[in-house]
Amino acid sequence: MIIRRQLSRAIPRFTIAVAHASPSSYRPQLPTIQLAQPRFRGDKKKKKDVPSSATSRQSDIQAQQARTKQQEREDRRRELKRRTDRERAEARKTKVTPVLMDIETAARYLKAAEVGRPEKTATITITLKLALPLHFQSLRGTVRLPKLPQAERVAVFTEIPEIAEAALKAGATYAGGDELVNQVKNGEITFEKSFATPGALPLLRSVQRTLGPKGLMPSERRGTVADDVVGLLETSHGLLDLRTRGKILTAVIARASFTPKEIETNVSAFMAGFRKAIKNSTSRQAPLVSEIILSSTFGPGVMVLA
Amino acid sequence: MPGRFPTQIEFLKSLSIGRGALKLPNNVENMTLTFKRLNSYGHMGARKFWRFYLPKIQFHNPNLPISVIRTDATTEAEHKAAPSTLTISFKDRAPVVLNVKYKHSDGILQDFISATRAAPVKDTTPPLGKPDMRIKLNP
């Protein structure tokens, strides 16, 4: 090595390699001198083929970055699992709380807080805080409340006038084809539920962006598209959709003008629907309830037993 | 006591106990309070009666329909002429209309008690559940 270094210092353009002869060889041991490859300007392709020290360093950095990213991902996953486990363990524990009441008392407090408020705005909402299992998608289901908190407006999209007439008779607020789609496009009408016949689906493509985000776009997957749209309307009218958003399931279940007894029956129907949705879900582990809160527009949110 | 609970307990107490915690007799059907949105010309007492006492009356009589109507006035004459009344309907007799214009909220409460023969609620502890109640939501 010493010889090589000295030589390379003396003649920087050449590299010298010593060919070691095998013991069986009779040839004399002679140092062979190799000329360095001549370099040409703009000969970049050749440079790429031979891994230089700069490119190898770059690939090292890239590999290091990939390792760090993987590590970070792993850390995040582990942290999520730890948090989920902690939340679920917490939900299973017996809670100690200074304010907890039955639904009837809670309803009395909320009614008192809403006294004299306009009936339209004074609503009572139930919120379930859930401890979900890891990688839980969402919980979906439907509930039929004994007393609906608000009159539900239903739109039926169909290209056949006879079906539209029948739908209006069966309780739909709006029914029609092209004109109805135009009204939706112009923002003239609003509704809480929508159904469609398969023939009307091409008409709805123009309002897909308006209805889609609100969850009002009829689709076969959701079961809101059928030839017998009137039958569908009769079975699903007055159903409340349950859907978890994040770790929370919330729904308006009553008005402040309801009596405490009515509020109580609605809450128990809601809880029954929630338990049924858990039973029907395909998830291996069920979500746990960490808190049940009954609240109103201007009132407090009180923890209840349900 | 942790976090949100002290404030919440205070709020719940303000809705249920104190002056105005009255149990009405069964013959009271409904009540309506009417006043102007602006306080001027004697409408402040009715507004304060709504804020202070109506929640407590509603809490102890949960099935009683109570409505509040707030009117609007534009001209000076309209402001002066706008009525401020408390109407109490009974099942067995004619409704009583109390004129609450230029009256203090405490005075309105006195008039209300004498008109309905309401009895103050004796139990003054708010039903918040047992202190530090233990619950298990996931059996």
UniProtKB/TrEMBL annotation, chain A:
The keyword Hydrolase does not apply. This is Ribosomal protein L1-like protein. InterPro entries: Ribosomal_uL1-like, Ribosomal_uL1/biogenesis, Ribosomal_uL1_3-a/b-sand. Residues 52-66 have a biased composition (Polar residues). Pfam families: Ribosomal_L1 (PF00687). Residues 36-92 are annotated as: Disordered. Gene3D superfamilies: 3.30.190.20, 3.40.50.790. It comes from the Eukaryota. Belongs to the universal ribosomal protein uL1 family. GO terms for molecular function: structural constituent of ribosome. Keywords: Ribonucleoprotein, Ribosomal protein. SUPFAM superfamilies: Ribosomal protein L1. Residues 69-92 have a biased composition (Basic and acidic residues). GO terms for cellular component: mitochondrial large ribosomal subunit.
TrEMBL record, chain B:
Residues 39-119 form the Ribosomal protein/NADH dehydrogenase domain. It comes from the Eukaryota. It is found in: Mitochondrion. Keywords: Mitochondrion, Ribonucleoprotein, Ribosomal protein. Coiled coil: none annotated. GO terms for cellular component: mitochondrion; ribonucleoprotein complex; ribosome. One of its GO terms (molecular function) is structural constituent of ribosome. Pfam families: L51_S25_CI-B8 (PF05047). Residues 120-139 are annotated as: Disordered. InterPro entries: Ribosomal_mL43/mS25/NADH_DH, Ribosomal_mS25/mL61, Thioredoxin-like_sf. PANTHER family: MITOCHONDRIAL RIBOSOMAL PROTEIN S25, SMALL RIBOSOMAL SUBUNIT PROTEIN MS25. This is Ribosomal protein/NADH dehydrogenase domain-containing protein.
